[in-house]
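Lab notebook page, bench 4
Experiment: in silico fold of construct C2
Operator: M.H.
Input chain length: 156 residues
Purpose: comparison with the prior construct
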Amino acid sequence: MTDVTTILLDPVAFQHCIDIFAEHYHSMQIDVVAGFEARGLIFGAPLALRLKCAFVPLRKPGKLPGETLSADYITEYSTDRIEMHTGAIKPGQRVLLLDDLIATGGTLCAGVQLVKKAGAEVVEAACVIELPELHGRQKLTPLGLDLFVLVEKEGI
């Protein structure tokens, strides 16, 4: 499994993913779940509701109205950028970064940059799927960031 869309087709499996994340984070005093476009948004919003905290979408350029903060990152094939609303995350808040999948780790590293620009703290990063052969987790280590995943997929 390298795509979460099959999970979304099964409401029991989708609910189970949210339940596992909620159990893991319920005592960590998360103020904001920040979910990455596109599938990180799908998992992030219901998790924020379960944790009774704010949800902030991290979107591709030009998708958010109003003033934004941005961070660039390198993908496997090019460079890209993510954005969030200015002021959506407040200084001192405790933020969980959530995406569907970690491959090379560039997207999550850009999320860390955005949260730090806002003056907040990244508590942890979480993904449904990790592709360990692409070593994305290793990019988070120098940032002092732990990664929680539900599934490791070997042999991509």
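Observations: The first helix runs from residue 5 to 8. The chain has a mean pLDDT of 95.
Next step: discuss at group meeting.
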